[in-house]
Write a structure and sequence with these properties.
There is one protein chain. Helices cover 47% and strands 12% of the residues. The chain is of the alpha/beta class. The chain has a single domain, classed as Rossmann fold. α2 crosses α7. The longest helix has 19 residues. Bound molecules: adenosine-5'-triphosphate (ATP). InterPro entries: Rossmann-like_a/b/a_fold, TilS/TtcA_N, tRNA_thiolation_TtcA_Ctu1. This is Adenine nucleotide alpha hydrolase. One of its GO terms (molecular function) is transferase activity. Keywords: ATP-binding, Hydrolase, Nucleotide-binding, Transferase. One of its GO terms (biological process) is tRNA processing.
Length: 246
Amino acid sequence: MADLPKYSYSYKALNSLVGKAIHRYGMIEAGDRIAVGVSGGQDSLMLLWSLGERRKRVPVEYDLFPIYVDPGFDGGFGEALASTCREFGFPLTVDRTDHGIVAHSASNRENPCFLCSRLRRKRLFEIADRLGCTKLALGHNKDDVIETFFLNVCYAGEISTMVPRQELFDGRFTVIRPLAMVDEKAIRRLAGTLAFPLFNNPCPSAGTTKRSEIKAMLERLYRSNRKIKGNIYRAMSHVKMEYLLK
Ligand SMILES: Nc1ncnc2c1ncn2[C@@H]1O[C@H](COP(=O)(O)OP(=O)(O)OP(=O)(O)O)[C@@H](O)[C@H]1O
């Protein structure tokens, strides 16, 4: 991995948005044991790396436990991902499953992505619990939050999105999304500067989802006016209930 100039602008900008999200939503407290879902994608690698860097610099002590739920396709990259996490200073828990295969088999009548992510989420909670963690950090970024909003409007007929901090199971577990305020492009740029490895996603459904269609639509919209993205993001916390339908 490449060394980062200590006061790199792109690192400072990302760290500042991560700090803002952590403070605004009260994501991390002293003594937290935080499981980190690592998929091999650039977002979750950035999540692990940036929380690791932050940990060295802030007075709040917390521990990070990266977990990879391997969906079981041929050409998996569990070992290589474990070696990257080791470079970041953390041992990776790899859980080899057949979720991807089952989700794409004829026996599954659900959408493969839906089933796969439900099974994965369950495993992540189980492993996090086994590791004594009460928080699970996921690598969703600002673009994911916006896309989910549009996916929920268009395909679920509701106004909602994924929230930066969410308590589950009567508050016994908390999901946090420290990259929720960071643009995907900023993550890609910094990941490039740091020369993060690229892991090829062997899933046959990768890049063919409804999310990719919404992403393409939003990209067109963003190109037409540079204020649109910020406005959409702001709109999600600026809701005029009296101007919605009853
Ligand atoms: N196989 C997995 N094992 C562990 N965590 C995962 C896995 N897949 C996804 N996650 C977690 O869920 C988050 C969202 O998943 P999603 O599939 O949208 O991400 P991705 O595009 O595959 O990868 P990334 O967000 O890491 O770039 C990831 O950022 C990561 O924290």
